[in-house]
Amino acid sequence: MSDSGRDIVFDIFEKVLSRYSIFKNRDALRPDYIPDNLPHRSEQIQRLAFILAPSLKGSLPSNVFLYGKPGTGKTAVTQFVLSRLKMKAKEAGSILAISYINCRIAGTEYRVLASLCSSIDVDVPFTGLSKAEVFQRFRSGLERFGGILIVVLDEIDALVKIHGDDILYELTRIKESSSGRGGVSMIGISNDLQFKEFLDPRVLSSLSEEEILFRPYTADELYDILRERAEIAFNENVLSESALRLCAALAAAEHGDARRALDLLRVAGEIAERSSSQSVTDEHVRRAQEKIESDRVWEAIKTLPLHSRMILLAVYVNSKRNESKCFTGEVYEVYKELCEGLGLEPLTQRRISGLINELDAMGLLNSKLVSMGRYGRSKRVRLNIPASMILQLLKSDPYLSSLEGYVEKYWSKG
Ligand SMILES: Nc1ncnc2c1ncn2[C@@H]1O[C@H](COP(=O)(O)OP(=O)(O)OP(=O)(O)O)[C@@H](O)[C@H]1O
Ligand SMILES: [Mg+2]
């Protein structure tokens, strides 16, 4: 009870109940929601459908490789086509099984193999068998099954980069040896083409019998995607046309990523809702962009190893201490001081240079080779994240937090 005798909790609940809600169906903006319509992907949908169709009549489809930047609809298109294939196969009585595996989530070769087995009702213990043994069970299970198994390896690069292409090699061989009694057909999906270099040429040519490219979406295409989704997700007249255009434009500027566009829309809606606004405006979209960006940076910082974190701290302290001298040499000196403060053995300057390059590639630092006249060239290093994140980093890391006083000395200076 509050002082006035009213129940504050009921007050809050009633306010929420009576408030005009922004969302009609928030779930429609979730990443795993697959809409009934995928604008601007009919070409990819049709090609994949044509490639897989023979499986309904018992013929083995070609393997196919789907590639394109993140958020370009590869997973959505695949799920879209497969769900319809499954329905048709049931109607037509085709002997067809589908095994969809996200390799990044599955994590290990063993788990990928176990998933393959379970899709044709072969039991495999959680651990304990050798890879060869599991594969043997899979092969005989496939014989018993006698139909076509469509294996989708989504984010296939995650599997290949860590474990090589053994499984892929075995799977492509099964395809060859099948004698009319079904077999395995593969759909590989990746947003990282570099992984092809990790593949045996035979595996590569077999996996890429067919290839489907997913181009980044343009701003206009993203707008169409967002508009259709917004109609399901938001109540009428809540979303301004210009906010929708802005989401599309911001996501297109990134790399035509529909996931990013949908995230922006969802977060903008949440921000609007929390500030009790009746509509979603450009301002909410801009704030959503900032929030997503800082969440992304923070995610990256959180997973950094200790010495990389210390480099960020050292770059920060050095930039406050001597604005004009932000070269790797000075950063290294500060880094050594920090190590001393923590009683740690510093890494060599060469190693630190390597870590600085990594941080640069991640976009957390900005490093640039500059000419020093007759003294040759030197690398200038700058922080590419807000200084407030440095404080957040210190406070969240129990190990580094003992340096807080040391770093805060420089705080007031900027
Ligand atoms: N043409 C489209 N119409 C409607 N929604 C789409 C379309 N393309 C993508 N989406 C949506 O955008 C999000 C990202 O798409 P998807 O997961 O298919 O990307 P992806 O290409 O698999 O990306 P990644 O390489 O990161 O796995 C999903 O929520 C998906 O539903
Ligand atoms: Mg995907």
List the helices and strands and how they pair.
Layout: H1 8-18, H2 42-52, E1 64-68, H3 74-92, E2 96-102, H4 103-106, H5 109-119, H6 131-145, E3 148-154, H7 156-163, H8 166-177, E4 183-190, H9 201-207, E5 210-214, H10 219-233, H11 241-254, H12 258-274, H13 282-302, H14 306-321, H15 328-342, H16 349-361, E6 365-371, E7 377-383, H17 387-396, H18 404-408
Parallel strand pairs: 1-4, 1-5, 2-3, 3-4
Antiparallel strand pairs: 6-7
Helix pairs in contact: 2-3, 5-6, 10-11, 10-12, 11-12, 11-13, 12-13, 14-15
The structure holds adenosine-5'-triphosphate and magnesium ion.
Residues 74-75, 154 line the site of magnesium ion.
Essential attributes:
414 residues, alpha/beta, Helicase, Ruva Protein, domain 3, Rossmann fold, 3 domains, 5-stranded parallel sheet, binds adenosine-5'-triphosphate
Characterization of the model:
The protein folds into three domains: about 110 residues, Helicase, Ruva Protein, domain 3; about 170 residues, Rossmann fold, CATH 3.40.50.300; about 110 residues, Orthogonal Bundle (Arc Repressor Mutant, subunit A), CATH 1.10.10.10. Helix 2 crosses helix 3, helix 5 packs parallel to helix 6 and helix 14 crosses helix 15. With about 425 residues, it is α/β, with parallel strands linked by helices. It has 18 helices and seven strands. Helices cover about 55% and strands about 10% of the residues. A hairpin with a 5-residue loop joins strand 6 and strand 7. It is globular, with a radius of gyration of 27 Å. The strands form two sheets. Strands 2-3-4-1-5 form a five-stranded parallel β-sheet, sandwiched between helices. It has a two-stranded antiparallel sheet with strand order 6-7. The chain binds adenosine-5'-triphosphate and magnesium ion. Adenosine-5'-triphosphate (ATP) binds next to helix 3 and helix 12.
